[in-house]
């Protein structure tokens, strides 16, 4: 009756076949969840749009962009970066829920490619975030935001945004596994807010007290937001001449990769340590 | 490495598991024969769940070996995983998905293929009386339905060995009976069941053999009958008319039965004592109490309960005796 047997997992090809089959089952699970809770899925997509509208129209009137740029043009790329950074919470929550419900243990007691649990999670979260980004781009366009650079530059900008999301995925998996059954999830959810606001997403770090401004400039999310503004040729505060702002595109590549180099091994180690 | 003979479904040899300073398992040995229900009975924190998690390939032992269905649980985890089902303390289900979707997902992960998984899901839904649940998400299920679906999910592969870790904790009496009946019907298909429980009644009802676990090791092992007879033979229970007589009656019963000690329970007006010869003890106690003018409401001979075995074996360091030993 079974198409895959333990004997087929000895070969690399057999193992790869199993990893693909199991990862696709895990991904199917995510799609089925979204299909069953369309409201929740829609709210997830609408939340960053709501933030964008709030900041653009409630607060935007009081914001002046250095050099006379349009605030919406400035804000929209920052909100793209923020949406990617907030993805961390979603990943973390999914992982802790599976631990708490015992679903993770059920999976682990099954003859599956154990890594398919992480591969499936990654695929689902990246698909979800790509959808979220598409909705945000649509909302931005409706609000008058445009990219002024080439199409290649625009695609590179989207690539950098998804790269940040992928780095956040591994931070989220690690924190989810660490949090496990504790209240850490809520703490992280609350702490995400000051971390994303301490960036250049909404305003120039120059307007903040000096030490805060420095932290905000070095915030990985600021690197992505700044680089995306540069690539979309949207107004930004890249005139300050500090090293980070001068090398913002480089930092938007370096930061996510550095985060991944730290958190992906930590996450994998924590995952294998579940059996210790 | 020694591979145990094929007649045993589960063999554990010198299993230890330490978390820092804490020893969850402390040299545990266990053999479970194929096609039997083996009860693991013990107080909270005795190491029952740790044992199940090691046998179900979720945890690696610190030392020792365990073989399930003839395969080493650490070296051949995949072989073991195809042959076991695990029912944990809480229903391990995706709450957003429907019952059929859950079974379909798990079937695919057992590599039955999409069509095979759907077919198996239908069979199990019918078998567990869940065929008409429709598309309702599991979060709207009752506790009993959840447990049945959880059990169905652990039986997708018709496993040789099923681990039930406190399967009835938190269930009402009706849910408990449902689970018990399901376990009994599994036995007809030849499945070996390892059952952990805190409930003596559950072990007594279901298990062919019982191992009593305390502080990470097995302290007693045998059939329910064998364990009961370890506490001495039969017992006599005397229910008094009045609590006032309890001290006097305890002394009289000890003398009449020749027992070293009797257990009075003032709240229930009950005195319980071991007896060597059933009939002479019965007539002796009746006569002695009559002579002393102590009025009784009931006198009965019985086998000791597992409760008494359990408390006498684990009671010393837990100190949770319901009753008080009186030495005569």
> Can you count the helices of chain A?
11
Rounded Rg of chain B? 24 Å
**What's the architecture of the largest domain in chain B, going by CATH?**
3-Layer(aba) Sandwich
Low-confidence region ranges of chain A = none
At the fold tier of CATH, the topology name of the largest domain in chain B is Rossmann fold
SSE string of chain B, helix = H, strand = E? Answer: EEEHEEHEHHHEHEHEEHEHEEHEHE
- Stretches of chain B where pLDDT falls below 50 for ≥5 residues? 319-328
CATH class call of the largest domain in chain B? Alpha Beta
* Rg of chain A computed from alpha carbons, rounded to a whole number of angstroms: 20 Å
As for the number of domains of chain A, it is: 1
- Find the count of extended strands of chain B (DSSP E, 2+ residues): 15
**Total domain count of chain B:** 2
Beta-strand content of chain A: under 5%
Family (chain B): Belongs to the ABC transporter superfamily. Drug exporter-1 (DrugE1) (TC 3.A.1.105) family.
Domain ABC transporter (chain B): 10-240
Keywords (chain B): Antibiotic resistance, ATP-binding, Cell membrane, Membrane, Nucleotide-binding, Translocase, Transport
Protein name (chain B): ATP-binding cassette domain-containing protein
Structure description:
- Chain B: Belongs to the ABC transporter superfamily. Drug exporter-1 (DrugE1) (TC 3.A.1.105) family.
- Chain B: It is a peripheral membrane protein.
- Chain A has 276 residues and is mostly helical.
- Chain A has eleven helices and no strands.
- The longest helix of chain A is centred in the first third of the chain and has 30 residues, at 71-100.
- The model of chain A has no long low-confidence stretch (mean pLDDT 90).
- With 328 residues, chain B is an alpha/beta fold.
- Chain B folds into two domains: 8-228, P-loop containing nucleotide triphosphate hydrolases (Rossmann fold, 3-Layer(aba) Sandwich), CATH 3.40.50; 231-327, 2-Layer Sandwich (Alpha-Beta Plaits).
- Helix content of chain B is 37%, strand content 27%.
- Chain B has helices spanning 48-55, 77-81, 99-109, 113-127, 143-154, 173-188, 200-206, 224-229, 246-257, 278-292, 306-318; strands at residues 8-19, 22-33, 37-41, 63-68, 71-72, 84-87, 161-165, 192-197, 209-214, 217-222, 235-240, 261-265, 270-274, 296-302, 326-327.
- In chain B, the strands form three sheets. A six-stranded mixed β-sheet of chain B has the order 6-7-8-3-9-10, with helices on both faces. In chain B, strands 14-11-13-12-15 form a five-stranded antiparallel β-sheet, covered by helices on one side. A four-stranded antiparallel β-sheet of chain B has the order 2-1-4-5.
- The chains are: A mainly alpha (276), B alpha/beta (328).
């Amino acid at each position: 009756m079974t198409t895959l047997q333990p004997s087929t997992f000895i070969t690399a090809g057999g193992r790869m076949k199993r990893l693909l089959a199991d990862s696709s089952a895990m991904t199917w699970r995510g799609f089925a969840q979204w299909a069953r809770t369309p409201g929740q899925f829609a709210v997830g997509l609408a939340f960053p749009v709501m933030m964008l509208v709030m900041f653009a129209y409630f607060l935007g009137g009081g914001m002046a962009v250095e050099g006379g740029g349009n605030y919406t043009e400035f804000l929209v790329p920052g909100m793209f970066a923020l949406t990617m950074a907030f993805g961390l919470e979603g990943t973390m929550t999914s992982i802790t829920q599976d631990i708490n419900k015992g679903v993770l243990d059920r999976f682990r007691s099954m003859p599956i490619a154990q890594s398919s649990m992480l591969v499936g999670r990654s695929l689902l979260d990246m698909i979800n975030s790509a959808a979220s980004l598409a909705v945000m781009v649509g909302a931005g366009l409706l609000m008058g935001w445009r990219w002024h650079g080439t199409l290649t530059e625009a695609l590179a900008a989207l690539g950098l945004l998804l790269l940040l999301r992928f780095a956040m995925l591994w931070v989220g998996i690690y924190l989810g596994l660490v949090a496990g059954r504790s209240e850490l999830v809520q703490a992280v959810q609350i702490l995400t807010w000051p971390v994303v606001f301490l960036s250049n997403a909404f305003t120039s770090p120059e307007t903040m007290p000096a030490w805060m401004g420095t932290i905000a400039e070095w915030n990985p999310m600021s690197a992505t937001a700044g680089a995306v503004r540069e690539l979309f040729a949207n107004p930004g505060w890249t005139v300050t001449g500090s090293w980070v702002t001068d090398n913002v595109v480089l930092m938007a590549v370096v930061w996510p990769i550095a985060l991944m180099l730290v958190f992906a091994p930590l996450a994998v180690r924590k995952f294998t340590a579940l059996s210790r | 490495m020694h591979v145990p003979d094929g007649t045993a479904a589960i063999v554990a040899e010198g299993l230890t598991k330490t978390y820092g300073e804490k020893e969850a398992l402390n040299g545990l040995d266990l053999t479970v024969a194929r096609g039997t229900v083996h009860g693991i009975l013990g107080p909270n924190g005795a190491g029952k769940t740790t044992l199940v998690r090691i046998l179900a390939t979720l945890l690696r032992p610190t030392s020792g070996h365990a073989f399930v269905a003839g395969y080493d649980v650490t070296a051949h985890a995949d072989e073991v995983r195809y042959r076991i089902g695990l029912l944990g303390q809480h229903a391990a289900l995706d709450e957003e998905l429907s019952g059929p979707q859950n079974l379909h997902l798990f079937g695919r992960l057992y590599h039955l293929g999409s069509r095979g998984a759907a077919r198996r899901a239908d069979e199990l839904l019918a078998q567990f009386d869940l065929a008409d649940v429709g598309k309702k998400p599991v979060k709207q299920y009752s506790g009993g339905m959840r447990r049945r679906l959880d059990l169905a999910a652990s039986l997708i592969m018709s496993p040789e060995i099923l681990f039930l870790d406190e399967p009835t904790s938190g269930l009402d009496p009706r849910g408990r009976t449902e689970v018990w009946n399901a376990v009994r019907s599994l036995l007809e298909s030849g499945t070996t069941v390892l059952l952990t429980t805190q409930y003596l009644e559950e072990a007594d009802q279901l298990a062919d053999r019982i191992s009593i676990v305390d502080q990470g090791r097995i302290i007693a092992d045998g059939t329910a009958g064998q364990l009961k007879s370890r506490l001495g033979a039969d017992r006599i229970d005397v229910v008094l008319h009045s609590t006032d007589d309890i001290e006097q009656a305890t002394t009289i019963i000890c003398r009449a039965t020749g027992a070293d000690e009797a257990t009075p329970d003032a709240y229930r007006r009950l005195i319980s004592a071991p007896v060597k010869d059933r009939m002479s003890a019965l007539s002796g106690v009746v006569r002695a109490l009559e002579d002393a003018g102590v009025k009784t409401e009931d006198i009965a001979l019985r086998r000791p309960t597992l409760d008494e075995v359990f408390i006498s074996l684990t009671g010393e360091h837990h100190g949770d005796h319901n009753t008080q030993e009186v030495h005569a």
